[in-house]
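User: Structure with zinc ion, tokens only please.
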Amino acid sequence: MKIITTPDARLREKSEKIHQIDEEVIGIIAEMRKLSLDWEKEHPYEMSAAMAAPQMGVNKRIIIVRDDMEDKKKATFTALINPEVIRTEGKEVADYEGCLSVPSVYGMVPRASKVKVKAVLEDGTPVRIKATGDTARTLLHEIDHLNGILFIDHIKDNPKAFYKMTDKGDLVPADYEKEIRNNEELWGE
Ligand SMILES: [Zn+2]
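Assistant:
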């Protein structure tokens, strides 16, 4: 399996709920962990903080989230099955976001600063997670994937919110008219 990118239609589908955590589901999670770390090896300036199953073309409600987003050497992920936003709180904060499935485009995306999520762990344990800051942002970004939503959708009317990464790993403003607005690879049809 591999990470799929825009404009692949599978990124735009609503994913199915998981009814049973069977070998197939465990296999999907293992593959997601592997692909995230493979991707990171090829992108020295970036960290793969999380991933959703549709990003490898599997439209099922599974995400993985990195346990430690500061230290790249700590490469463990928690899998969340059927994650659901119970509520968002706090004021909206804009910060940089990128996506394994949206190559070389970044955005300043406004998101709620606090979120409460419910999900099921790999071993079947139901959990409720209260998250703030980067973790809240990551959860909202990944749960969006399960509903066919990409971060670029949230900023499509704001030309100044788009960035791109230079070869040296710096983020610089992207030329909206030239690089973003009419880019069929980004938006699909
Ligand atoms: Zn993403």
